[in-house]
Amino acid sequence: MRGAITAREPMAGAAGPSGDPPPRLAPGAPGHYGMMRYHLGWADERLIPVDAPTGKRLRPLIAILVSEACGGSGEPAVPVAVALELLHNFTLVHDDIEDGDATRHHRPTLWALWGEPQAINAGDGMHVLAHIALLEAAAVGVAPDVVVSLARRFATASLVVTEGQHLDLAFTGTDIVPVGAYLDMIARKSAALIACAAAMGAEVAMASPAVVDSMQAFGHALGLGFQVRDDILGMWGAPEVTGKPTSDLARRKKTLPTLYALGRVPDADRRAIQAVLETPDGPPSLLDAAQGAIDRSGARRHCEALVARYTREAREHLGVLPPGAAHDALSELVGLLEVRDR
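^ that's the sequence the OP posted. Answer follows.
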């Protein structure tokens, strides 16, 4: 992933043949890729190299492990893994802007440091780099027709993620969001890319269409469980562990626990929850009352049961893979994600 960014960074005196664009960014504008490095945890806000907290690298890990579990080598899956992680981080940069989140992994977000226009542009750059990285699969021996198929799957998943983000943003101004509609939204926004990672890992290993489909289903179930677990942590997780300074309820986000509670609590508790959602700057007592109503609704128990169900489904889909170290690693990963605390 570092190489994908370094290949486009400034190089003194860079200039292409007459009439051609320069192969790298002009030396006077290093901040574009520096912002990407900052977001990825490789630089501080002065763009000086640093080892800062990063994401889980879940999607690239799944792609490589599935490729190996399907009998392939991890090497051809590396461009796929890089592309997936760059695409995921592009969505995070834009998501932070759209949600107004000023921190991520205990650090200021890109837009909080450099403003929304530059952050949007840096995110767009990561999106393009993701597609360029994927095409490098041809350089490590992946057949051209497979690269085309991978690119189509990758682009489709990218589009589905934007559908999910559209729904998420639309729900912000919607009074009543059915739980089923919310699950459809996270299937697009969160599960689609994890499902894509698993399917691409199988495809690059030349697995049969049936196995590719099973890995797509594996990633879909795993992604749903991952996001519901995230919703649990967003409501009840410790901020010093999760890296989120406030709960989803304090941010007035309509996540699964809140939506589940709204459909099941008595009128008084429902009014307490709605009061918080409708009052952005209400007193702490409002938040406490709403939190108590959600706790009493059994929302946590329901969400944890859903995580267990999706985890079980993911393990069932793994059953098509032969025994081996990569299969065991995937199974262990499923178990870790089910009980993670961050």
